[in-house]
Design goal:
Elements (H helix, E strand, L loop, with lengths): L1 H71 L3 H36 L3 H5 L3 E5 L6 H11 L5 E5 L7 E5 L4 H11 L7 E4 L12 E5 L2
Parallel strand pairs: 1-2, 1-5, 3-4
Antiparallel strand pairs: 3-5
Length: 211
């Protein structure tokens, strides 16, 4: 009986020696799980912070970029002003082109006038208050320039200045004759014949020498 009791006691001692180990292991397992979950939670929080920071940074960048684009784009008033300026430039160019075309057409019309025909036109030179004998002198001058049908005379009333009157549609011919007259009378001008004043239309081209 003594031996059996001793064996049982030894077995109990061994059992007690094992139990503390098992108890320690059992207690360490929950702590290990808590550490694992804590690490996961910390990693999640860190990831959340990183993502949030990146999102905020991206939002700030997009806002800054959009702001630059808005500043870079011209305003409606600027675009309207530019459109008006372009329209005005276009109008000026069109007007300039139109004037150039008219000038070109006039030059072409002058160039088509037959000089020989103009010099054969009937021209009357009338003294309308100028120096005595000036009509005859001017007629002689024109003949010397190649005009073959020139007559001289006097007006019934006095006039001012030297004026070349021309019949309808003879303005270009009058311009050619003026180019000759200004050699003697630089202030000479041209005017259409006055239908109410027969002295201005004695001939297709009538030159009146006034005071």
């Amino acid at each position: 009986m003594l031996e059996i009791s001793t064996e049982e006691e030894e077995a109990d001692v061994k059992s007690e020696e094992k139990d503390p180990v098992l108890s320690t292991e059992d207690k360490s397992v929950p702590h290990s799980h808590e550490s694992l979950w804590g690490g996961i939670l910390f990693a999640c929080m860190l990831l959340f912070v990183v993502v949030s920071t990146a999102s905020i940074g991206w939002g700030v960048y997009v806002g800054w970029k959009n702001n630059r684009l808005v500043k870079a784009e011209p305003s409606i008033s600027v675009l309207s002003q530019q459109a008006n300026e372009e329209q005005n430039v276009g109008t000026i160019d069109e007007a300039k082109t139109s004037d150039e075309e008219q000038t070109k057409q006039s030059e072409e019309k002058v160039s088509t006038i037959d000089t020989a025909t103009v010099k054969e036109m009937a021209i009357s030179v009338l003294n309308g208050g100028g120096a005595k004998g000036s009509a005859g002198v001017t007629a002689t001058f024109l003949k010397g320039e190649g005009y073959t049908s020139v007559t001289a005379g006097n007006t019934l009333k006095d006039y001012t200045g030297v004026v070349i009157y021309f019949a309808s549609s003879l303005d270009k011919e009058a311009e050619m004759i003026k180019a000759t007259i200004v050699k003697k009378y630089p202030q000479a001008t041209i005017l259409p014949a006055d239908a109410k004043n027969k002295e201005t239309s004695v001939s297709p081209i009538t030159i009146i020498l006034g005071k």
